[in-house]
Structures are given as C-alpha cells and as structure tokens.
Amino acid sequence: MAVLASAGSPADSQLHPHLAHLTALLALERSHALASSLDALTHLAPQTLQARGLSLLAVRLTATRTGLGGKLLAEFQRDDAASFPAQHAFRVGDVVGVVVGKKRAAAKTAESNGGVDNNAEGVVTRVEDARLTVAFKEDFEDAWEGKILRIDKLANDTPYVRMSAALAAVQNQIVANSLSPILRVLLENRAPTFRDRVELQLYNEALNESQREAVSFALSANECALIHGPPGTGKTETVVELVRQFVKLGLRVLVCGPSNISVDNIVERLSSTRIPLVRIGHPARVLPSVLSSTLDHVLKNSDAAQLVLDMRAEIDSNIRKLAKTKSRTERKQLWQANKDLRRDLRTRERAALDSIVSASRVVLCTLAGCGSRTVLMNAGEFDVVVVDEASQALEAETYVALLRAPRAVFAGDHRQLPPTVRSANANKGGFATTVFDRLAKRCPFAMRMLDTQYRMNEAIMGWANGAMYEGLLKGHESVRTRLLCDLQGVSETDETRAAVMWIDTAGCDMWEAAPADDKDLQGDSHSRSRTNPAEAELVAKHVETLLDAGVAPASIAVVTPYAAQVGLVRAELATRLVSASSRVINPTEIEVGTVDGFQGREKDAIVISLVRSSDAIGISGSGSAEVGFLRDERRMNVAVTRARRHVCVVGDSETMERAGGVLKGLVEWFFEHGEVVSAHA
Ligand SMILES: Nc1ncnc2c1ncn2[C@@H]1O[C@H](COP(=O)(O)OP(=O)(O)OP(=O)(O)O)[C@@H](O)[C@H]1O
C-alpha cells in the first residue's frame, strides 16, 4: 500500500507479517468502500445522481460566515430558491464536494476522495429544506461567487488514510525497535503483566463486585487488560469509574471508541464529574448533549477566544463590503484579505486548541479521530488509552489510538457482532477480527467479565447465558422478573405476561422468498436478498396485539437479520396500523431495523423475524438447512439480548432445528421456557 511503500519505509524483508497482511486487507476494504461512490460520481449523469439523492444540482453560494478554526461556513441554496429534492441523502456530518458547473472532472484514482480532481471538500453542518450549510477548511468564495454549482456526497476517505498511516507508523517502530509495551504484547506475542493491586476508593459505590474487580484489575495492568461486558452489565459505568481512577493516579487518559456514539456515551457520563475533559471531533457529528464538552465549544469560551474575535469581526465586515462592491479589483482585494485573515485566525486558534488539549486530563475521540492533527500534536503525552466498544473496532483503527499511549484497556463483548467489513475478501482474510478477539483468545487471563446484567428478564437472558456466556451471567434482582404487563397502562394478556415467546411457522408453508441475486455472498448484499412476506404479516400482527394491550409504540422494536425484510415489515406495519381507524399511532414510531444496526440498543419488547424457512430446497449435503449468516451465533445473541421484558421470535422452528448448532439450541430453549404459538392459530 502507498504508505508502506513510501520513501524511508522498511524493505519487504523487514515487514511484520501480520501488519503486512492487515495492510493488504485494509487496501481491499478501502477500495471497496470508495469504489461505489467513485463509480457513481464518475459514470452516472448528474440528473441520475440527483434522483438518487447523491447530488444537488443548480445551487448557488448565498452566504458565508467564519466558523471556529477559521473555517469557512458556506450556505448554498438552489438557484430558484426552491426546496431541495425530498429524496436527497445529505446529512449533518457528511463529507461533500462542490463543483463549479454541472459536471465533475473524470476520476483519476481512488487515492483522492472519490477520485475527483477538486479539493473543495467540506463537512455538512446544517441541513434545512432549502438551505445546506457546509464547513470548509479553505476559502473558495471567489471561485464560487455568482456561479452555478453542484454539490456531491463523497465517500469519507479520512479513516482509511489514518489507518494506513497508523499501520505504517507501527511498522516503522518495529524497525526502529521502539514499540511501546502494548504493541509488544500485540505484535511480539509477549504476555501481559500485572502489578500488585492497590486498595480502591471508589467514586461510584454502587458498582457491583465484578465491576469493582474489573476496575481494580485494569488499574494493575502494565500493558493491557480486557473488560468483558455482556449485554447490559454496566460496561460504560465501569469504564467511567476506571477513567476517574486513572485520573486520580495522576495519569492522562485518552478515551476512544469506534463510533461517535460510543464516545459520546462516555462523555455524557464523565462530564458530570469535575475532571477537565475535552471531546475532540466535528461538532456536526457529536450528540447535542455533549456539545459543551467539544473542543470547539471550550475554545469559544476560553480567553483565547477574545483574541480572535476582532479578526472574525474584520472578516465578516469584509464579507459585508463584498456584498456592496461591484468593482472586480476591489472584490479580489477583499477576498485576498479574508484569505489572509482566515489563515492567521487558523494559526492562532490552533495554538489555543493545542493548549486546551494539553491542559485536559481526559481527551475523548473516535479511534480514527486519534489520527487528527489536534491529537497528533499531543502524541506521547497520554499515559493510557481506554477503548470502549473495542469488540466493534477494526484492528487497523485500534492502532491509530494505540500509537498514543504505552498502555491500554479494552472494553467490549466479543460474543456480540464484530465490526462491519464491506469487502468480502477482506472479511475472508480476517479484517473483522478485533484486537479484543485476539487478546481474549490468546490471553484469557488478562480479561475480567462483568457478570450482573441490569437489562433483561431472567428468561430472556437464559438462552444467551447458556449459549454465549458459559452460564456465568446473573440477572440483577431489579430486572429479573420484569414483564410488559408491569408497565403502567399495559394490561395483562398472554403476550404481556410472556417474557419469551415463539410464533412458529413450521408446517405453515410460509417460505422465504427466493433471493434476488445469491451470487454475491458478501454480508450485506447477501442479507438484502432475503424476505419472508408471510412472516412480515405475523410480525405486524404481533406488534398490533402488543399495542392493543397498551404497550407504547416507542417501547417496541422489530429486528431481522435481513435488510430486505426490514422494508417489508415496515410496509406491513403501515398498512395494518393505519387501516385500524380507531388507533392514533404513527407506525414509524415502532423501530424496525437489522440486527446488526440495532447492536448497542435496547427496548422493552423485541420482535425478531428470522426469515429463513425452507423445506428440501437449500438443504446441504450434510443434511443441515442452509440458513446463511443467520448461523452466526453472535447475531442471534445481539437480537435476543436487545429485549428488556419481552422477546418474541417469529420463525420456522423446523428449519432452525435442521440448521443445528446455536439455532437448534435457540429453538429448544424457547420451546422449553417460553410461550409457543403456531402461526396457524
Ligand atoms: N452497579 C450497578 N448498579 C445498578 N445499576 C447499574 C450498575 N451498573 C450499571 N447499571 C445500570 O445498568 C444499565 C446498563 O449500564 P451501561 O449502560 O453502563 O451498560 P453497558 O454494558 O455499557 O450497556 P450495553 O450492553 O448497551 O453496552 C444502566 O441503566 C446502568 O445505570
């Protein structure tokens, strides 16, 4: 890959085999992720792109302001000032590119974002009916003034660039023999070591025994420790306590997760403590509740902000003058003045940002965010990195964070789904295997499991406990017997009294629909191809029964492994619920999604549509039914453990039993411990 092959890179013979393998897989994944966007942008007609929601045509620059970091905040509207097409897919946080005219220049390679030879890339900060606001690092006003423009949604290449750079940096450390202790454990197969424990003075006295043990154990790790948190066991609570303990010891902590939401969950809980912390990340991409912890916000309220206020005022006054000036020469001068002012502003703000970051005891950002300039400036200054949702993080992206500290704690659950990998070949090569997976397998002694869950009725927990957690999980007494009928306004019915239920389609000829294209066995495309219309009807009927008993729509979610089934269930719910005229329910309040998309979430009632149902067709030579990626036990684990009070599986028990393994066990457990109803009933 480009980064490893660059000047000063090690010779092939010095490449660490595992890093070389990861680098190759990263290249596959990156080109797969960028290819579809690149293809569309360079080969589809502008009108087609607009119809698909990927481009906005015939727009103009209507206003500019100066945002934090000297960024140019540009507002765009359609030339006719009308609303944007309803189907557009532009969202806050998206990376977009602006082109003068209607056509994009032909792509060169996938190396630049989307392959376009245009560097006017920005991040969407606001989406309104007829106005789009985008933040740019550079000035483009003079190029866009008075012109008809086109805005395209681009693939975000930044994470891939940062992962590449991290792998190359680690490789260089190997050559220089300067690997940090945590990287030595990972890449030289050294065993993690632990020091003597010290007595703990907890901030959160409510932590249970296993949470306390996990905190104390992680504090004693010299290189790394794993905190295994099955669903609802208070992983985040534990991580928050751990971070506070690290700070108490005088350490500087970098807290990361693979997604913005994983980071924000911790920011939300940590910000109520008095620890000086800062959340690094584009404000457009963070939860509104944590905005006040973002670097941009802290900067705005710092002393340094005063210094730059005058400069901003001058820029904005130039912008006002520009609106009144007709002279081309004068306009050019004003643009140039603003360019210079913004550059100056950026330099000053950068210095201020760096001083805020270095004064923070705790810095929080995504794993890929650790490769940003702001964090890089502080490289080497962190004592420990804490990675939450580590079992959802690509190994390559984890290295971006691991380069910043000698020691790490990983929290996650390798019994739930791994990170999504789009390229089938990268997946086959093991790109979804996480650092957490590797360490949990190689060094189980470096892991502590949280054993008390605060989410599920005991019957819901039961199957997952046996199948995934060696029976070590306990239900806290506050949740052990919780049912839907205990909720206010919910009446007692067979359904609301049942924690675990199976609506069985066996023998009902409710077959799955033939896949549209079964050739592509890559996870998501494969999943998109399966539906089961009769099952969708049963799901909608069950949801209606729950609503009739008084369960709130927002307390119910439907999950299914197959993306195509999501659409079918939504349509079925809309038809069924809207046609019942006595009901004042908006069917969209009931969340319907894929199992993969619902990881990390929970609801009082979960209805699972299994989809797969076949008789002789699809039975393999071994006699087991072909059930595709439903067989992944981690997917079933995630599906079932989203529920607090009620989980209802709608599916064909015969097909599942023939599939064997975890699915056979699921049927047996539900049939023994739950309410079973035939779809015939
Ligand atoms: N020791 C405890 N005593 C009482 N409640 C607790 C305790 N630890 C966690 N909880 C509660 O359990 C719930 C789940 O906790 P938390 O969000 O930390 O879990 P998690 O493991 O991060 O969840 P997920 O499975 O979604 O990753 C929260 O409502 C939290 O307040």
Automatic annotation (TrEMBL):
SUPFAM superfamilies: P-loop containing nucleoside triphosphate hydrolases (SSF52540). GO terms for molecular function: 5'-3' DNA helicase activity; ATP binding; hydrolase activity; RNA binding. CDD domains: SF1_C_Upf1. GO terms for cellular component: cytoplasm; nucleus. It is found in: Cytoplasm; Nucleus. Pfam families: AAA_11, AAA_12, SMUBP-2_HCS1_1B. Its main location: cytoplasm. The keyword Secreted does not apply. Keywords: ATP-binding, Cytoplasm, Helicase, Hydrolase, Nucleotide-binding, Nucleus. Residues 221-455 form the AAA+ ATPase domain. Its EC number is 3.6.4.12. It comes from the Eukaryota. Belongs to the DNA2/NAM7 helicase family. PANTHER family: DNA-BINDING PROTEIN SMUBP-2, DNA2/NAM7 HELICASE FAMILY MEMBER. This is DNA helicase. It comes from Geranomyces variabilis.
